Amino acid sequence: MLLEKITEDELEFMMDFYNPIALIECLFGDFDNLSAFEEDKLGYVRPYQFSMLSFEYLLDYNPELTAKENFKLKEGAGNIYCFGGRKYGKTLLVEMLDMLASMCLLGSEHVGFSSYDALHIRGILEKIVQVLDVHPFFDTILDPKVNRSPNYHFYLRTGYTLDSVNMNLQSKSPGSQFFQKHFTRLYIEEASFETEEVNKKRLDSISENGCVTRLAGMTNFTKYSPVGRIFYDMAKKPWISNYPQTVSPKWDAEEKKKAVKEHGGEQSISYRVFVRGEVVEEGVAVFDMERARKCYLEDVEIKHIEVNKDNYANYKNVIIVERPKQASQVFIDADIGESAPTEITIFFKIGEKYRYAYNITLYNLTHKEQEEVFKYLYNELKGAFIGIDTTEGTGRAIYRALGEIYPAEQLTWV
Question: Which residues, at least 6 apart from 179, have a Cβ–Cβ distance to it below 8 Å?
């Protein structure tokens, strides 16, 4: 078969695709449907989103430097710690589009994708699977192979592999899936929830040359948490990205009105965190539940339940609780988090002993949504004494709302 030589103009045109903006806008005409492809339809990366992409693909290998020194340059062009408000493209740009671009431009890469639970991992990687299955460029040229069990594993003909890592924060050994991993590239969704225990295991899961690290999440952390130390480290300032939700062109007067109502005012902690993208120290929960869990009796079964913004609509099917027949009293206690999760514990008094039965964690829920959870628990457990942490506005709002429904002698605040 006679093959036609590539012209200089064609070669120059193809080199444009090493610019991630050009590649992404040509491959994906609709960022809401990444598996669709139309030759005449281009996507649009907003100018403020440019810095959220990796530009390491433009770097050539310098033979005068060592492999580790060359990789250091890649880290400089590819690392990002992106924390800010909601809905301006953190997950889309930092993780999904960059991940797809890296599949096209990198070979023999060992990539990890992590989050604090299976739900968040599945929510992102299933969208990537759909692109690999349907998009003609990825399906035809990269010949992807995908396994979903026990964890996600992608393999491309270029030698590029991707493995999911579930932090499993509620397990007896959080972060253990990082063992025996040596990533050259790592994406973390909702990175603000990473704990000290997970962080220590993650830091040993990189390749000997280093790892391009791409973290995204909300600013619901403290300066002493793993992510907080990164955020406040002046040496990492060139790679810190912190935008408010208001940077999005979709933000307008109507969106602001809805947000103010949802969060209970512009000065509320949830508005400052989820809209403005601020780190609000006074929004930290009172108790360190990570330390408290170390005091659990391992042979006593405690049911752990998680509710977040993704499964809240179905929370009555997620939160399954039952009052033991021999329980004379029920206690629902809550450490209310504003920029941190809310932790609810449920105790039953049986005879002269108190049985700790349930630990319910609420992630990123508004005070109205949390209020509904308390009402549901009260009804399911056929009455209870409720103790609420009222050190901040969200706790006080929930306490006031419950006080309008239940007798004062069944409520207490701290």
Answer: 201, 205
Task: Say whether pLDDT at 90 is over 50.
Answer: yes
Do residues 195 and 305 share a domain?
no
Range of the domain at 388: 289-413
* DSSP strands (E only) in 31-175: 80-83, 110-115, 145-147, 153-155, 161-166
The CATH number of the domain holding residue 125 is 3.40.50.300
* 334 and 196 within one domain: no
Same domain assignment for residues 299 and 186: no
What is the distance of C-alpha 22 from the center of its chain?
27
What is residue 210's predicted lDDT score, i.e. its pLDDT? Answer: 97
CA distance linking residue 8 with residue 22, whole number of Å: 19
Neighbouring C-beta atoms of residue 73, cutoff 10 Å: 15
> Residues 148-168: pLDDT tens digits?
999 999 999 999 999 999 999
The 10s digit of each residue's pLDDT in 321-376 is: 999 999 999 999 999 976 678 999 999 999 988 899 999 999 989 899 999 999 99
The helix (H) or strand (E) run that includes residue 368 is helix 367-380
**350: which residues sit within 8 A by CB, 6+ positions away?**
324, 326, 327, 328
Non-local (6+) Cβ contacts of 261 within 8 A are none
CA distances from 60 to 11, 56, 63, 207 (A): 16, 9, 9, 20
Same domain for 300 and 241: no
pTM of the model as a whole: 0.72
Separation of CA 18 from chain center: 28
286 pLDDT exceeds 50? no
Q: Is 22 helix (H, G, I), strand (E, B) or coil?
A: helix
Q: How many domains does the chain have?
A: 2
